[in-house]
Amino acid sequence: LRFDNGIMSGDCEHCEIWTPDGYHIHSVSGSAAVGRGKTLVNDIRIIDDWSDLKLEYFSMTYRHCLMFRQFTDSVSLGGKIIPSTLSFQTLKNIVGIMPKNTVLLNLEGGEVHGPVNNLTINSLAFHEKASGLKAKVNRITLLGLDSGQPCFTADIPAISVSSQRLPGFLRRFAGTQGINLPEGIGLRLAVKGAGSLNDFDATVKIASNIGEVHSELSVLNLVKPGRKPEIEGMLTVNQVNAGSVLGIEELGKISLDTKV
């Protein structure tokens, strides 16, 4: 430890943590500096049973130490993600959300800022090795993370995944049986949405090698235990090859507007 000009600094090569409910962080490491209204930790690495998360830096900014009494609303966080892995099982243990979600993301980069209850993630890129799904995120804002009923807004301009692997991703993400899709279709999605993790509205544009789909949807009961997910809204189909979707070669391309 070092103290100079009102700032305490030091290095942590290894710290192991157990929480009262049994969550185990195998290792935390980094270099920290604390003082003058800011805590800055560089070269962070956090390893638990599921994730190996790395950040170039993590910061907490505050006017005075008493603000930690209202940490989730008053202390502003910042961070820069570098290539690492993050499992939703880790998030379940930290913030108690989406207990059935077993997705493991390979993070390529991104930035985080804001207090816990109004947290914004910018320029996030990731992929899931199991499905081959890849995504780029312009912006996700998470509201009320400590409330047990968090809400979000999201702008995700690029998601790509194959039709045969999408159902498996949905099973890992929401703990549902997913959907059945024909194989050999490359899907490219752009999504904007807002709501809670269980009930939300979304605009989804899907481009593929067999046509395009545009939808304005409301999704209900996505992660609610004991309830089946429900989807309702408007669907616009543009020149989609129905024969490829339904497995009937005689059918050609269709365009339609319908309710779902």
Structure description:
The chain has 260 residues and is mostly beta strands. The protein is 10% helix and 58% strand. The chain is built from 4 helices and 16 strands. The chain has a 16-stranded antiparallel beta sheet that branches. The protein is elongated, with a radius of gyration of 21 Å. The protein starts with a strand and ends with a strand.
Distance between the termini: 62 Å
Beta strands, count: 16
Number of helices: 4
Q: What's the average pLDDT?
A: 91
Overall geometry comes to: elongated
The proportion of residues in beta strands is over 45%
Give the uncertain stretches in residue-range form. Answer: none
Q: Please bin the fraction of helical residues.
A: 10-25%
Structural class, by secondary structure, is mainly beta
**Rg over CA atoms:** 21 Å
What are the secondary-structure elements, in order, as H or E? EEEEEHEEHEEEEHEEEEHE
Outline the biggest β-sheet.
Answer: 16 strands, antiparallel
Please describe the topology of this protein.
Layout: E1 2-4, E2 7-18, E3 24-35, E4 38-48, E5 52-61, H1 71-74, E6 76-81, E7 84-87, H2 88-95, E8 104-114, E9 118-127, E10 134-143, E11 151-162, H3 166-174, E12 186-196, E13 200-208, E14 211-220, E15 230-241, H4 242-246, E16 253-259
Antiparallel strand pairs: 1-2, 2-3, 3-4, 4-5, 5-6, 6-8, 7-8, 8-9, 9-10, 10-11, 11-12, 12-13, 13-14, 14-15, 15-16
In short:
With 260 residues, the protein is mainly β. The chain is 10% helix and 58% strand. It has a 16-stranded antiparallel β-sheet that branches.
